[in-house]
Amino acid sequence: MVADTHVPKRARDLPAEVWREVQSADLVIHAGDWVDERLLDELAARARRLVGVWGNNDHGALRERLPEVARVEIEGLRIAVVHETGVAKGREERCSAWFPDVDVLVFGHSHIPWDTTSHTGLKLLNPGSPTDRRRQPH
């Protein structure tokens, strides 16, 4: 799971550790803000399975190739991916209403890791950014 990579604006490439994980994962999820179509092509070539969405910094071919919201079911687990979910306050309730038929929602945008569960049981996950940590320790 990755988001807000901003390659090549925030970094020339993804960290080596991320590429190692991509190559060993059964599923790679990217929650938007790729910035350059070349990263999409490279991830698609290296990942066994890739699910991604466009973010607010993605334009042109990225928006043509990627959906705003992606949905996938893995062994009965219903996953949705979206870039933006709005402000942190009220996120769980808002996302539970937007995605009532989902078990896990992966999102990006803030560059800040997030791991909570709503009152309806919806798991919300944001991996943060591997290239622009915005006041995060790592």
Question: Explain this structure to me?
Answer:
The chain has 138 residues and is an alpha/beta fold. It has helices at residues 16-24, 37-46, 61-65, 91-98; strands spanning 28-30, 50-52, 69-74, 77-82, 104-106, 114-117, 123-126. The strands form two sheets. It has a five-stranded mixed beta sheet, with no helix packed on it. The chain is globular and about 40 Å long.
Strand % is 15-25%
**What is the helix tally?**
4
Order of helices and strands: HEHEHEEHEEE
**Helix proportion range:** 10-25%
Describe the largest sheet.
Answer: 5 strands, mixed
Major sheet: order of its strands?
A: 3-4-5-7-6
Radius of gyration, in Å, reads 14 Å
Based on the structure, what is the oligomeric state of the protein chains?
single chain
Kindly name the structural category. Answer: alpha/beta
Sequence stretches where pLDDT stays below 50 over 5 or more residues:
none
How do the helices and strands line up, and which of them pair or pack?
Elements (H helix, E strand, L loop, with lengths): L15 H9 L3 E3 L6 H10 L3 E3 L8 H5 L3 E6 L2 E6 L8 H8 L5 E3 L7 E4 L5 E4 L12
Parallel strand pairs: 1-2, 4-5, 5-7
Antiparallel strand pairs: 3-4, 6-7
